């Protein structure tokens, strides 16, 4: 028996089918990418093998570049530069002993060698991104870090370059992110949340080189919200700034409010232009309670707070987070890595500033 089609039910069905198609397209693209990278890896191995076997030099790469297009067509770039990258990819990633010594703390399953793990990362990373990492990053641990982050966060090559220039790996290793997720979130949700919070955010794209107020900082971020989203990472959806919450007859305003598509939760960001103070955590904890009561949907995960400060004392942050129940991460931000040339040598260094303050 035929029934009338409910518009709501049909729209939901249509959305499900469209989502399935999009997921299939993404999987198809990823499969082609992996197969292509496997080909490039194999070619790199062949070049190295023949050079070692016959003592050939760089001239064989020039000959390959000339003859391959005539033999199999122009479908792939057979330029000497691209062929050299194929060789470099294999030669710099295939030394198992070197990888073992450098990656001894990597969370790789015992049954999987470091070479297998790294090769899997390389094969699942876009070719252009692989070249960028080879060119811009020399430390093997740092390379693995950027490969992992590119895959997890689906970085464009532009965003990857930004992360490398902002020294994301150095910040990751020297200044681990601080949060209370182990206490405030379910165990299965903690790792995802940790991955969504950086220890340091680079906001130098705001072109700010002078003291500003928190509202000015917020407005600058909102004006360049696309770049802000790229810095925060994949999955953040902007909801609003100065987002109003009410309790009784009093209003409160969240600096920036996002929804995270992967974590399936609301994310509140509070901005400070002064060094971390413990009361900042208490205020954000209060806001998160209001968000969970007033905005959180039934199928949403617990809301998360990110407190951005220019400086923080790690021990002070650690103790402040012990007293709150809502999941909060405290991160630093950098506004500009370099002074304008006209100001070089005209301002005190950070050490001189500290000396002045101590006096």
Q: What can you see in these coordinates?
A:
This protein is an alpha/beta fold. It has 16 helices and 7 strands. It has helices at residues 7-54, 59-72, 80-93, 96-102, 114-123, 127-136, 140-153, 157-165, 168-174, 181-184, 187-196, 214-223, 225-232, 278-294, 314-322, 350-358, and strands at residues 178-179, 200-202, 236-247, 250-260, 265-271, 304-309, 328-334. Strands 1, 2, 3, 4, 5, 6 and 7 form a 7-stranded mixed beta sheet that branches. Helix 6 (127-136) runs antiparallel to helix 7 (140-153) and helix 6 (127-136) runs parallel beside helix 8 (157-165). The longest helix has 48 residues, at 7-54. The protein is flat and about 80 Å long. 28% of the residues are buried.
Shape: flat
Share of residues in helices: 55-70%
The tally of beta strands, per DSSP, is 7
Structural class: alpha/beta
From the alpha-carbon coordinates, what is the Rg to the nearest angstrom? 25 Å
The ordered string of helix (H) and strand (E) elements is HHHHHHHHHEHHEHHEEEHEHEH
Largest sheet: 7 strands, mixed
Helices, by number, come to 16
Query: Which runs of at least 5 residues are low in confidence (pLDDT < 50)?
Result: 199-212, 334-350
The averaged pLDDT comes out at 75
Bin the strand percentage: 5-15%
Distance between the termini: 87 Å
Question: In brief, what are we looking at here?
Answer:
The chain has 359 residues and is an alpha/beta fold. The chain is 56% helix and 13% strand. The longest helix has 48 residues, at 7-54.
């Amino acid at each position: 028996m035929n029934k009338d089609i409910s518009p709501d039910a049909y729209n939901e069905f249509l959305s499900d089918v469209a989502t399935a198609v999009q997921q299939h397209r993404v999987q198809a693209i990823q499969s082609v990418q992996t197969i292509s990278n496997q080909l490039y890896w194999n070619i790199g191995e062949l070049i190295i093998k023949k050079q070692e076997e016959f003592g050939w030099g760089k001239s064989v790469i020039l000959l390959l570049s000339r003859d391959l297009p005539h033999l199999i067509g122009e479908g792939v770039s057979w330029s000497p530069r691209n062929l050299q990258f194929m060789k470099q990819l294999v030669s710099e990633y295939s030394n198992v002993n070197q990888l073992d010594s450098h990656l001894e703390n990597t969370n790789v399953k015992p049954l999987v060698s470091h070479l297998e793990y790294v090769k899997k990362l390389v094969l699942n990373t876009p070719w252009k991104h692989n070249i960028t990492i080879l060119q811009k990053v020399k430390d093997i641990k740092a390379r693995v870090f950027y490969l992992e982050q590119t895959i997890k966060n689906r970085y464009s090559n532009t965003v990857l370059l930004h992360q490398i220039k902002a020294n994301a790996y150095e910040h990751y290793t020297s200044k681990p992110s601080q949060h209370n997720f182990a206490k405030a979130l379910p165990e299965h949700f903690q790792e995802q949340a940790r991955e969504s919070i950086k220890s340091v955010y680079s906001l130098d794209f705001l072109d700010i080189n002078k003291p500003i107020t928190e509202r000015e900082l917020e407005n600058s971020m909102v004006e360049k919200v696309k770049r802000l989203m790229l810095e925060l990472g994949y999955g953040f959806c902007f909801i609003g700034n100065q987002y109003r919450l009410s309790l009784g007859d009093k209003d409160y305003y969240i600096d920036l409010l996002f929804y995270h598509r992967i974590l399936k939760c609301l994310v509140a960001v509070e901005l400070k232009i002064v060094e971390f103070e413990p009361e900042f955590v208490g205020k954000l904890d209060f806001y998160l309670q209001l968000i969970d009561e007033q905005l959180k949907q039934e199928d949403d995960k617990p809301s998360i707070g990110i407190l951005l400060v220019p400086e923080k004392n790690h021990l002070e942050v650690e103790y402040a987070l012990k007293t709150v129940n809502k999941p909060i991460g405290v991160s630093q931000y950098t506004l500009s890595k370099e002074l304008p040339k006209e100001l070089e040598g005209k301002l005190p260094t950070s050490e001189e500033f500290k000396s002045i303050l101590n006096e």
